[in-house]
Each structure stands twice: as C-alpha cells, then as structure tokens.
Amino acid sequence: MMRFNLYTILTLLSWLFINWPCEAQEGTVTSGGEIAGNGGIVSFTVGQIDFIHLSESGGDVRQGIQQPILAKKEVAPLKPVVMHLYPNPTRDFVFLNILHTELINLSYVLTDLAAKTLEEGMIREHQTRVEMKSYASAAYFLTVYEKKKPIKTFKIILVK
C-alpha cells in the first residue's frame, strides 16, 4: 500500500512538472515583428523592459526576450585602387589616372550639384581625359564605378 502511494505521488509530481507551462522567450511588450530583406531577417520588439548582459571569464549570459545571434559573412578583400584627378581646379579638362588595377567594367559619370548627369563614359585607359569646356563655372562630381557600383567620387571645381 505504501509503495502504491509513493509511486502515485511521484507520478503526479512528474506529470505536474512536465506539463508546467514554459515561459522561455516570452514577455509582455507593446509591439514587435519581423522584417525580411535581401540581407536576412531581423526580429524586433518594442517595449522590452528587461534586459541584462552579464559577462565573466567563463562566458556571457544575456537575459531578455530577443537574444542576439551573431553571424559572420566572409567578404573577399578589396583590391586597392589608386586614383588621381588633376588639374583641379580646372578650366578646360581633367585627367583621371587609375593605377594598380585592371580596367575591367570601370566607368565614370559626371554630374552637377543637382545630381543631373552631364556625361557618362567607359574607362579603357589608365589615363582618361574628361572635357569640361562646355560647362559653366561651378562645382561638379565625377564618380568612378566598377560593375555599376560607385568606388570613388571626386569633386571638380571648374573656373572660367
């Protein structure tokens, strides 16, 4: 009889603790959600009031609703591109010199201060001449692109 009672009590206690509601990663917040894009997914919480970060030699403990997940993406190192633009200020033209790189998929765009495109061209030589005679005295921007991504922008001062 005693054995039956002990077995029954242990079974009931085990059932009680196993079925106890889990409250991990749960909290009362005002708002939250997920935002997904090309770079990944970010979840956010507005109104999270409890967050503690403890750090010791044995490791880190982060308490709170949203736990940070660190991910590392390997990025190929960029090749150094050395560029010079001269003469600046100028009256008629500028030279764009590009050193230490292959001239594959390089282009330039000349714009005014209002971002209006004035001239576009491919860079096929290590020294490219850009004519400025037909433009008024002002500041201009020459942006160099590699595969349609900007890699350097120069400010040109044109003085007549």
Word description of this protein:
Helix content is 11%, strand content 46%. The protein has 160 residues and is mostly beta strands. The protein has a domain at 82-158: Immunoglobulins (Immunoglobulin-like). The strands form 4 sheets. The chain has a 4-stranded antiparallel β-sheet with strand order 8-7-10-11, with no helix packed on it. The protein has a 3-stranded antiparallel β-sheet with strand order 5-6-9, with no helix packed on it. A two-stranded antiparallel sheet has the order 1-2. A hairpin with a 2-residue loop joins strand 3 (52-56) and strand 4 (59-63). The protein is elongated.
Name the strands of the widest sheet in spatial order. Answer: 8-7-10-11
Overall 3D geometry? elongated
Can you tell me the residue ranges where pLDDT is under 50 for at least 5 consecutive residues? none
**Into which percent range does the helicity of residues fall?**
10-25%
Query: Can you write the helix and strand succession as a string?
Result: HEEEEEEEEEEE
Number of helices: 1
Second rung of CATH, namely the architecture of one domain:
Sandwich
Summing up helix and strand content along with how strands pair, one would put the structural category as: mainly beta
CATH superfamily of one domain: Immunoglobulins
Question: Beta fraction of the residues?
Answer: over 45%
Mean pLDDT across all residues, rounded?
80
Sheet with the most strands, sense and barrel status: 4 strands, antiparallel
CATH-defined fold name of one domain: Immunoglobulin-like
Radius of gyration: 32 Å
Protein name: T9SS type A sorting domain-containing protein
Organism: Litoribacter ruber
